[in-house]
Design goal:
Elements: E1 3-14, E2 17-28, E3 32-36, H1 43-50, E4 58-63, E5 66-67, E6 77-80, H2 95-100, H3 104-107, H4 115-127, H5 143-155, E7 161-165, H6 173-188, E8 193-197, H7 201-204, E9 210-213
Helix pairs in contact: 4-5
Bound molecules: adenosine-5'-triphosphate and magnesium ion.
The site of adenosine-5'-triphosphate (ATP) has 12 residues, from α1.
Length: 225
């Protein structure tokens, strides 16, 4: 099996406060890997390390068999970040515009998107079951609808790996189930490897091909890596 994500003996501290201690994990092609753990155990931090937005003090992270610091092929990874209070999109933008943002690396910012790209956006919206609100303003959508748009945005480059940080936070249980079905479909039918953080393990236990449980560092004395 192809190794998609490999984390080896990872140790990370923010300002000398240890968050992740000797973490090991492997995600292989086709996995639906689920990361669980209490608030503050370092789940979002782990994703930032995997995406090279942070650098570990010790240990290694590799993506698609390559050290993350050398990795350049970012368009094959779709990322849906954790929604926080200040991550609302306040500027006026339609759903199509939001989804198209991830294409600008390819076509150049402020370029008019041609027919080909419009087709790609439409397909991503269909795959995320968000096509019904394509023309609407993003800020006017409900939380669950916005989350599906963010998934469409992450799908627009046809990723091989999809990383989602609590995609169902604040969403009612019926809509949550729909989102999980959608992710299951993307994993099984589109062969997209998934790494998802959730607090809702009961709902995804059946979907998960592996589970990673993060805990607070055991050694309370160890402030450093
Ligand atoms: N930029 C930062 N500077 C300093 N400390 C930080 C920073 N970001 C996160 N932390 C701390 O690191 C720890 C892990 O944070 P992280 O956001 O990774 O947790 P999490 O597991 O994603 O939590 P949640 O379930 O609440 O999303 C927390 O104690 C947090 O306060
Ligand atoms: Mg988090």
């Amino acid at each position: 099996m192809q190794n998609i994500i490999k984390v080896k003996d990872l140790c990370f501290a923010y300002n000398k406060v240890l968050v992740l201690e000797n973490l090991n994990l492997e995600v292989e092609k086709g996995d639906f890997a689920v990361v669980i753990g209490e608030n503050g155990t370092g789940k979002s931090t782990l994703i930032k390390l995997i995406l090279n937005q942070l650098s570990p003090q010790r240990g290694e992270v590799s993506l698609f068999g390559q050290q993350v610091s050398q990795f350049k092929n970012w368009s094959i990874i779709g990322y849906v970040p954790q929604v926080t209070l200040n991550s609302n999109v306040n500027f006026p933008a339609s759903v199509e515009e939001i989804v198209s943002m991830n294409l600008y690396a390819k076509v150049g910012f402020m370029r008019v998107l041609g027919k080909k790209y419009k087709g790609i956006i439409k397909q991503a919206l269909i795959n995320a079951e968000a096509q019904d609100f394509a023309k609407r303003q993003f800020s006017e959508l409900s939380g669950g609808q916005q989350q599906r748009v963010m998934i469409a945005k992450a799908l627009v480059n046809n990723p091989e790996l999809l990383i989602l940080d609590e995609p169902t936070a604040g969403i009612d249980s019926k809509t949550q189930k729909k989102l999980y079905k959608l992710l299951e479909h993307l994993n099984k039918e589109h062969n997209i490897t998934i790494l998802m953080i959730t607090h809702d393990f009961d709902s995804v236990e059946e979907l998960a091909s592996k589970t990673i449980k993060l805990q607070y560092p055991k050694n309370g004395e160890a402030l450093y890596c």
